[in-house]
Write a structure and sequence with these properties.
Length: 110
């Protein structure tokens, strides 16, 4: 799932204006984010055609913290460019209680 340049122009106002010497354009980054969302791959697993995975991750992280990603995905939905809803659930093993049988540990009572 990638958006075209014509589709990008419809949502461009939702993205920060790029300044200076930029190695990746917002369209490239957005298409990389859509790829990760669709494929569920790791950042390091991004195809080289998208550019440096770390640069993409850093920009995505900045956009996420600034609320830009929410605006972009809302605009993508409103413009009917993509129909995607991204939700994330994070589990931290230090707070999830597991029965001893679930860990593979030997049960002393058996």
């Amino acid at each position: 799932m990638e958006i075209t340049e014509a589709q990008y122009l419809r949502i461009e106002p939702s993205l920060p204006r790029q300044r200076g010497n930029v190695s990746l354009f917002n369209l490239q980054v957005l298409n990389a984010l859509l790829y990760v969302a669709e494929q569920g791959c790791k950042w390091r697993g991004l195809p080289k055609r998208f550019g440096n995975w770390h640069t993409i991750y850093t920009r995505m992280n900045r956009w996420s913290k600034n609320g830009v990603l929410d605006q972009v995905f809302e605009r993508l939905q409103r413009e009917q460019i993509v129909r995607i809803k991204i939700e994330a659930v994070k589990l931290d093993s230090t707070t999830v209680k597991v029965h001893p049988d679930g860990t593979g540990a030997l049960n002393p009572n058996s």
